Amino acid sequence: MKFLLIAAVINGFLSVALGAFGAHGLEGKVSEKGLDQWGKAVDYQMFHTMALFGTALLMGRIQAGMMTGAGWFFLIGILLFSGSLYIYAVTEIKTFAMITPLGGLSFLIGWILLGYAIIKHL
């Protein structure tokens, strides 16, 4: 639980910092499409940071391996989805864009595990 809470705090900080960097540091340096991709990466990182935070807090009430799994899938999703979009936004190398759906799949698995654990244990 503590590791996932710390990971959520770090990701929350990074979401704000990377969002500010994208808004102020990348303007005029990357394409409009790149700025859109960067913004999408920030949005999904913050949404799933909150999911990670909520999951870690719920672990105090729900002692199920599915909760830990959900947290890990949210964290992996952030790394793969947002991470690949950040890199793609500044490099425009399509290989990185092909990683993004794996992060999306990780998010979906995390939501399924979280939902199942809540339905089963609360």
> Alpha-carbon distance between the termini?
18 Å
Oligomeric organization of the protein chains: single chain
Content-based structural category: mainly alpha
What can be said about the biggest beta sheet? none
The coarse silhouette is: elongated
Low-confidence stretches: none
Q: Work out the number of β strands.
A: 0
Q: What integer value in Å does the Rg equal?
A: 15 Å
Helical coverage, percent range:
over 70%
**SSE order:** HHHHH
Percentage of β-strand residues: under 5%
Tally the helices.
5
Mean pLDDT: 97
Would you kindly provide a written description of the structure presented here, covering whatever features stand out?
By secondary structure, the chain is mainly alpha-helical. 84% of the residues lie in helices and 0% in strands. The chain is built from 5 helices and no strands. The chain has helices at residues 2-24, 32-58, 65-91, 94-97, 100-121. Helix 1 runs antiparallel to helix 2 (32-58), helix 2 runs antiparallel to helix 3 (65-91) and helix 3 runs antiparallel to helix 5 (100-121). It is elongated and about 50 Å long. The chain starts with a helix and ends with a helix.
Secondary structure layout:
Blueprint: H1 2-24, H2 32-58, H3 65-91, H4 94-97, H5 100-121
Task: Please name the defining characteristics of this protein.
122 residues; 5 helices
